[in-house]
Amino acid sequence: NNVSIIVFDKTGTLTEGSFEVVEINGADDLLMLGAYGESMSNHPIAKSILRKYGQEIDQKRISDFKEIAGKGIEVKIDGKVYNLGNKSYIEGLGITVNNPSTVGTVVHIVCQGKYLGNIVVADKIKETTIEGIKHLKKYGIKNTVMLTGDRSEVAEDIAKKIGIDTVYSELLPQDKVIQVETLINQGAKLSFVGDGINDAPVLSRADIGIAMGALGSDAAIEAADVVLMDDDPAKISLAMRIAIKTLRIVKENIVFALAIKLVCLVLGALGIANMWIAIFADVGVMVIAVVNATRALRLKK
Ligand code: ADP
Ligand code: MG
Known about the structure:
Helices cover 43% and strands 22% of the residues. The chain is of the alpha/beta class. The strands form two sheets. Strands 9-8-1-10-11-12 form a six-stranded parallel beta sheet, with helices on both faces. β10 (190-194), α8 (200-205) and β11 (208-212) form a beta-alpha-beta unit. α5 (129-138) runs parallel beside α10 (235-269). It is elongated, with a radius of gyration of 26 Å. Adenosine-5'-diphosphate (ADP) binds next to α1, α3, β4, β5 and β6.
């Protein structure tokens, strides 16, 4: 009811969270290496590369798999060390990357310190995202924020398309918590919407944590206050409408019940009230308040 800032995670929340390979820049076997490197990851990027590769993975060739949240993967394929991940991760290893001009999330691939190339994957914006964001403004949301670990080009592109006010990109999972905490400390009531892949801590830290129920992890559902069972971001404004209406009914009932009781009290003190008025002031008022409260079950489309 009092939320004025809504913070969204990008992948899986505003976007479908199912990527598609749009470009492969490198030698013929790059897709195969990408698929082997990502084969033990559950990340949506990993799944998209495996889907594109579409062939059986020989698990015996893979060892020492390590996933670095918000960055990428380190793994051994046929005994050689591979690093797969975003620009900041690969550059952090002291390796120069090639940046493709296509807008998309880039998975750079490195073998034993040698740059091999990259695979570009892209995500789709959910059908209801744009409308959902637009509705929020009607319910008093002053600021919509998007947080993502993705590169800034992709983040800015999506934010522009869906009408998000503020964007913070290239964040590690812990940076997301810090960012949300900074916003909370400014005093505004804040809601965070995420799928819980790397963001369960933020979900529990926000005043109202909203999780994606279908795509989201169990940890997310556990940490959240509200769960959207169909992952539809347009349902956030519906939740706000329910909250606003419910609170209005609660206030109506309190004012109504106290007013009637006060009147009956005065009448009683003056000797005008009888037993039936007393029963009405108690049980009658209660029944009317309950009937009024059932209005919360009905919400206009
Ligand atoms: P988001 O903030 O969009 O939910 P994540 O925090 O999961 O994204 O990841 C941030 C970035 O880290 C991704 O955009 C990607 O560049 C990189 N990354 C994370 N996991 C992987 C992976 N398994 N393979 C390749 N890149 C990854
Ligand atoms: Mg995520």
